[in-house]
Amino acid sequence: MRDALLGAAFQLFLERGYEGTTVDDIVALAGVGRRSFFRYFPSKEDVVFPDHERCLADMKAFLDEGDDTADDPVRRVCDAARLVLRMYAENPTFSVQRYRLTKKVPGLRAYELSVVWRYERALAEYLRGRSAGRPGGTLHADVVAAAVVAAHNNGLRSWLRSDGKGDAEAAVDQALGYVQETFGGSPGAAVAEAPEDVVVVVSRRGAPLWRVVQEIESAFGRD
Questions:
Q1: Domains in the chain, CATH or no CATH each
Q2: pTM, whole model, 2 decimals?
């Protein structure tokens, strides 16, 4: 029934436009009652974005399953973003239709932004937990989450603009690669530092200052 409602809705959206289609039109074409529609979709907007609640729950579960001691948190949130890509790639035709429809309807664009914000918040909350107690941890978490979402959406929209004919995974992997290169690294990993170059100069007490300076310059290899 859910699939029948989705099929009817998008058929009507393509024929009449989103604004010109009502819930009554959708249920009439699908051959079900209004009660059945609202059992699956809280609103007409939810017909356009039917899988985001499930995907958001899957993303949170994936993040919760991570190994806090071994995982690179940036890699983890990048992998979590790929779950959203897979949702789109499961049905390219539907995803492309939704993309085109969303571009035309301001209300749907606003709805989509609210959905994207929820994904970003889920990623940020995970990163905040991984960086708790570290200086600037909250800011770092928010910046990385925003970067992951921006990179994912850049690759995703590139694929959607190709009518779903390109390589979605390659486009998103390339975009997320920039994020991992910029922000990646295991939490708490020691930062490799160049060994300190310590020079000890021994000089006689009472030696003239110019001699001490000469010895220091010699020790540093300066002429």
A1: 1-45 (1.10.10.60), 49-183 (1.10.357.10)
A2: 0.75
